Prior knowledge:
The chain is mainly β. The protein starts with a strand and ends in a 5-residue tail after the last strand. Residues 1-25 have low confidence and may be disordered.
Amino acid sequence: MKTRIISFLSAAALLAGxxxxxxxxGVDTATRIALSPAEIGFTADGTTVDGKVAYVGVVQVxxxxxxxYTWRAEGDVAWATVGETVVDESFADTWTGAVTTTRMRxxxxxxxxxxxxxxxxxxxxxxxxxxxxxxxxxxxxxxADAEIVCELAETGIEYASAGGETTxxxxxxMGDVYDYSVTYGEPDAGEWLTWSDxxxxxxxxxxxxxxxxxxxxxAVFTIHVGTADTSEASAEIAVVQLRVDDYYYLYGASVPRxxxxxxxxxxxxxxxxxxxxxxxxxxxxxxxVRINKDSxxxxxxxxxxxxxxxxxxxxxxxxPLPAGPEIDADGLRTLTxxxxxxxxxxxxxxxxxxxxxxELLNYKTKEFVARDGSMKTWMVEFVRWxxxxxxxxxxxxxxxxxxxxxxxxxxxxxxxxxxTSWNDPNMNPNYETxxxxxxxxxxxxxxxxxxxxxxxxxxxxxxxxxxxxEVLPDGWMEGKTIVDAIxxxxxxxxxxxxxxxxxxxxxxxxxxxxxxxxxxxxGICPYGWHVANASDWLxxxxxxxxxxxxxxxxxxxxxxxxxxxxTVSGSTPQVDEPNSPRGIGNFAPWLRNxxxxxxxxxxDGADEFGFNYYPIGFRYMTQGFQCAGTRCQTxxxxxxxxxxxxxxxxxxxxxxxxxxxxxxxMTNLDNGQAIFPFRCxxxxxxx
Length: 687
């Protein structure tokens, strides 16, 4: 018998458990067996997970009066040997410093190297009174654990009431070691799924007819690969079969989210013969919007939305198709189809008080090349829409005389004395524009300035931020779901921007990890447009890098990353430096134009580039209107994790810090007091 010195869990930890066999005093007297460490794991080379030659674990029989029990340990696997040993645990007395050594019986397990798959076994410990406890033993192998990939495990399968069949393709590293099973959600519905094995990687699943008019029925079809000896994996596919009814499925090139018939959108029944769908419709579609009845497979007759609000029935694949509906602007719509009258209508899903179509005609726009080679259309003016015939107005006029922070005539409220609303009688007229009854002469010639909540909700407030740390709109709190202007769903993330940087420098990976970088939020932009997002700004920097060769202030394409864009601390921005340690170097000179003046560091190609980022200035409630003619900042619909004041911070583009800095940065900003201008970008489809 060997003696080892190791550390192990305290007696209190070993005794933790349920008291199922209590004596007269309520003390649990049932025999229990504990093992410490509790996890018995080995690597492929035979060492333990913590790098030791053998696993040694202390066995404790409890309660303590039963500690005199003898016990025996056995393993049920040929690749591991189980023996007994003793360990010494030393305890130092807190007061005297005297050291006491206690000898404890332990089990020792050694594993042989494993050149195959992961394997497992069981250690059995039996106490003198016959009480048995088992502990799992696992060992990794040189061969990869079992894997299976099946797309339908993500999407599930849906059958019409008439039944049907689906071919399920999957890939696995287990070769031809596989099996199938089904679990029914409603046991009394009978065994209504059958399947035929097409060989490793393919199975055909069939659903029988379902005659219920009241309920759907469900099941889970499971693909098993591998065995207990070789490691196992499975893919579970949710299956639903619809009750007896009429079902209609929407698809077509004008519905890019559901262009393919097998991915058609199931419409929602409102009443007998009347169905609705909410989705993104795009003018790029070359086919009429189609509707199939009862299946997502090609069948006739089918229906199409025809011009003029009528529904046409198409008898066969050879039948001519009528002209489809005119889609004047790409965007989300609610479609209602009445199959009783064979008519349809739709309405836009849009932000209240957003800019109307005719107002859009007053704005200059321009296309810029994006990183993927597509073209993005930008407004090359700041939004100046005030909501039209509403009161209060959206946003605020800007005060052109406010040239510096806290200058006379612009003013700012003390941190604890903000107005509680746009018509607060305590508002100081010396800090406000004439538009709200103040004394400052403002203008919207180069755009208005807005509170972020106004921009994304359309709720007008004359650009007033009510609190120093004002929370974001409820729909923008972390974990909420936002559906963007092209119909994609996003879970709101409040990004934690660490000193080392949140982003990796791999733009594709960063966009996958932080989807809100690409979210197209309409806000008060016109229908079919959205508030320029972080991806749009990065694409604009890319466009500048492609144009800048041969001009002053060239932009280094390799620096066009989210990581570089958000690198804003630790170094001083450098003039005319494409590899600026902060932000995207030389980006700002391409956004300005010659109207900024001779000392503003404007590229000789900026006027032709034509972005016209005018130095409109902005307002902070604590500092007042400021920086007209010298600076400009703008909102980005991307949330920041403000740990001190949760739910109050967003990102901004510091394109212009002053008229000498040539880099551009994206940083976080307190939402409550900032009133900025912003730009809109035309919606684009994202696959």
